[in-house]
Specification:
The protein is built from 15 helices and four strands. A four-stranded mixed beta sheet has the order 2-1-3-4, sandwiched between helices. It is mainly α. The longest helix has 29 residues. Strand 1, helix 3 and strand 2 form a beta-alpha-beta unit. It is elongated and about 95 Å long. Helix content is about 65%, strand content about 5%.
Length: about 375
């Protein structure tokens, strides 16, 4: 039977350690703020203001009309004109332009005809993903321009020509397709894993290194009281970080919140429990603050960042990596976060992910409890 008096005493002792170690406490509060600001302002995946160089060999009102379509888009900025492929190559090599357009000399002459009006597009492909996005934007602008010109030159009964297939796309849950709306909810999982890995991995190891474990062993404290008592203060810090990250996402960056806050904090508590006891287990087994801290970050933070679907889509990974992601709690928690925040879904949709998080937390609680031996070696 757990004694709540001893449990509270251990929590108070760990709380005093946290307050005295003000650097770690400051870092625990500053990390979510820093990550939210970084991903909200700087590390966006949206492509805007792409610099464009143009070699306008036509120099006609028609070519300028096409360029006005390009400049009217928020994706491109016309940075200058050039008059040779040598100048284009130099602009792409130096990075002063990412896209170069070559408008042919007979561009205006071919507009009234039914033949295509080719415009050469040269793109810096050193960043393949960005280049692919930029190419799609250019093609979309060219398509809109072509439809407008065709409808003006070849009207049918005074109306515009209708395409054979007309798509009417509508994006759900993130209508503006802002990358911040997808990234910032996922930051909560990264923050919790960092905090848990950084803080709890030193708890038990610190007792062994400073020699205070012998004093604890001489008391009637039980292993369960020790591990739960030590994790409670960090649980409070972690939940505070969830509130900070969620509040900044909503009120600073305008991320829509459509689900239940209570369900989100409940799931965050379950995920945080598993992460805290992962760090606690490493601290118990390794008995070295430095080694446990480094290993916790390596096996906790990095896989959550790279393989949880936070940055890269899981369905786009090789099949062995997709199987590996099933072992990562971050995968399920990020699905829960995006489901609650952006889709507004609840337990009826997310219960499978919740069960995996519960199993993950229960496994590490069990392992930490069995590995902790309150006896001298």
């Amino acid at each position: 039977m757990i004694s709540f008096r001893r449990l509270a005493a251990v929590s108070r002792k760990e709380g005093i350690h946290i307050v005295r170690d003000w650097r770690s406490l400051t870092l625990a509060i500053a990390i979510p703020i820093l990550l939210i600001l970084l991903y909200g302002y700087a590390l966006t995946l949206d492509v805007k203001n792409v610099p464009v160089q143009v070699w306008d060999r036509s120099r006609t009102p028609e070519s300028r009309l096409f360029l006005s379509h390009l400049e009217g888009s928020p994706y491109f900025v016309l940075v200058g004109f050039c008059d040779s492929y040598t100048a284009i190559r130099q602009a792409l090599e130096t990075g002063s332009a990412m896209v170069a357009l070559v408008i042919p000399a007979d561009f205006a002459d071919r507009l009234p005809t039914a033949s295509p009006r080719p415009i050469q597009v040269l793109i810096d492909g050193s960043d393949a993903n960005t280049a692919r996005l930029v190419l799609n934007y250019v093609e979309l602008i060219a398509l809109e321009f072509g439809m407008r010109i065709t409808s003006q030159l070849h009207p049918i009964g005074g109306g515009r020509i209708s395409p054979a297939v007309e798509l009417k796309p509508r994006v759900w849950y993130n209508e503006e397709m802002k990358s911040q709306n997808a990234i910032l909810p996922g930051i909560i999982a990264i923050v919790l894993m960092v905090i848990a890995a950084m803080l709890t991995s030193v708890t038990i190891a610190r007792e062994w290194e400073t020699g205070t474990m012998e004093q604890l062993i001489s008391t009637p404290i039980r292993p369960s009281e020790l591990i739960f008592g030590k994790t409670l203060p960090y649980m409070g810090i972690g939940m505070l970080d969830v509130g900070i990250a969620l509040g900044m996402s909503i009120w600073v960056f305008g991320v829509p919140f459509r689900g239940s806050p209570a369900l989100l904090f409940l799931m965050a508590a379950v995920f945080l429990t598993g992460a805290l006891f992962l760090g606690m287990t490493l601290s118990i087994v390794l008995k070295s603050q430095v080694l446990a801290n480094q290993l916790a970050i390596a096996i906790g933070f990095l896989p959550t960042l790279m393989l949880s679907g936070f940055v890269f889509a899981i369905w786009n990974m090789p099949r062995p990596l997709q199987w590996l992601t099933m072992l990562l709690p971050g995968r399920y928690f990020i699905t829960i976060l995006r489901g609650i925040v952006l889709k507004g879904v609840g337990w009826e949709v997310l219960w499978i992910e919740a069960v995996f998080l519960l199993v993950y937390a229960a496994c590490f609680i069990t392992v930490a409890h069995r590995k902790l031996k309150l006896e001298l070696e």
